[in-house]
Amino acid sequence: MDDYEKLIASSKEEIANIKDQSKFQKAIKRTIFTSKSKLIFATLTMILLIVPISFMLTLMYYAFGTKSTTLMEVASKTLYVTEPNTSLEEIEFDMSFTPFSMKLAFEQYKRIGEEDYKANTYDLRFFLGGLSKKEVTTSLERVAPKHPTETNPWLIHPENKNLNLDIGREWRVLDGLPDETVVEAYISFYDLMTVKEVEDAMPNVDVVWAAVDTGVEKTNLSKDGYVVSPIGYPVQRDSSTWSPFRDSASNEEVFKDILKTMENHEELATAISSAKNLALPERIAFINKHGVKTYGVVVTGPKKDVLASLEKMNNIVRYLKVGEVKLWNWTR
Question: Pfam families per the record (predicted)?
Fold first, then answer.
């Protein structure tokens, strides 16, 4: 074979090798593309499966594990006995779910005069059975301290002597209000009383909530030294569908039953309430031993009737705190 034929043969081999490499590279690219497509498809499939599965597991958890109704019940009952003069409406509850979480939003009301006014809007987020986030937006004009301390209670026990009280200021505030208003007033007594005694002494206004002596209010500290807040119960009958006191023969007995429910979920109840510590076992034991007596109540009615009642009871009223004030809505 001469040099020319050798050159031709060599060129043909090179061309063949180039074609083979090109085919190989195309095959590699095709394989990579196919692998990527399969990976993307598998990932999307997993995502599409995980979302509905997680929702299904979430719904199953809140249906059969820590039930959504239990969380709603604990939240509702806690607020009734730890937030004076407040109520909730069942139709106002907005419940929604995200994977492993539940959102519970609702509005809280205060009775001022003869009408209920929006007091707070709650947004509670639960992760599984625990409260992960709590937001409260208030509509009130006179707001109780966000976090209770030993020296800032609006209702004061007769034996709590460690407070420097400006007794006359709130009386002057009440006296200065127009007669055409209805008011909410927090009244503390010199001595413990029964709710019936309070109602009999104030027939022209509505006694709406009673703070109960639980043995810790003398210092506002539990036996472990933690600050506690007042607990109590609505005094009047409540026909609201959602209220645990609905058409109750004895609000006092319902109150004691609620405390037992809260004790079974004390960590959750404490997180929901404004109090950092409820000290329920200690307080329940005291109530069971000594019975239910009140050291302070929340009343509402026309300003002139509230003021007249307080003046008539001046010898037993130790302290007054004026709450919300609204325009006249009294029809009696």
Answer: Sigma_reg_C, Sigma_reg_N
Question: Which ranges in the chain belong to alpha helices (H)?
Answer: 3-64, 68-82, 167-176, 195-201, 251-264, 266-272, 280-290, 303-312
Is 150 in the same domain as 250? yes
Closest CA to 108 of 126, 128, 124, 96: 124
User: Which residues have a Cβ under 8 Å from the Cβ of 52 and sit 6 or more positions away?
Assistant: none
Domain boundary, last residue among 65, 82, 107: 65
Q: How far apart, in whole angstroms, are the C-alpha atoms of residue 12 and residue 167?
A: 112
- Residue 94 bridge partners (DSSP): 105
DSSP secondary structure string for all residues of 167-202: HHHHHHHHHHS-TTEEEEEEEEEEEEE-HHHHHHH-
Helix (H, G, I), strand (E, B) or coil at 142: coil
Q: For 105-140, give one letter per residue: b (16+ CB within 10 A) or e.
A: ebbbbbbbbbeeeebbebebbbeebebeeeeeeeee
Find the DSSP H helices in 86-166.
none
- 172 with 281, same domain: the answer is yes
pLDDT along the chain (332 residues), means of 10: 52 52 58 63 61 63 67 91 88 79 90 94 88 91 71 85 79 95 96 95 95 92 84 87 82 95 93 89 95 96 96 92 95 88
**Could you tell me if 296 and 186 are in contact, meaning their C-beta atoms sit under 8 angstroms apart?**
yes
Q: What is the pTM of this model?
A: 0.81
DSSP-assigned beta bridge partners for residue 108: 88, 120
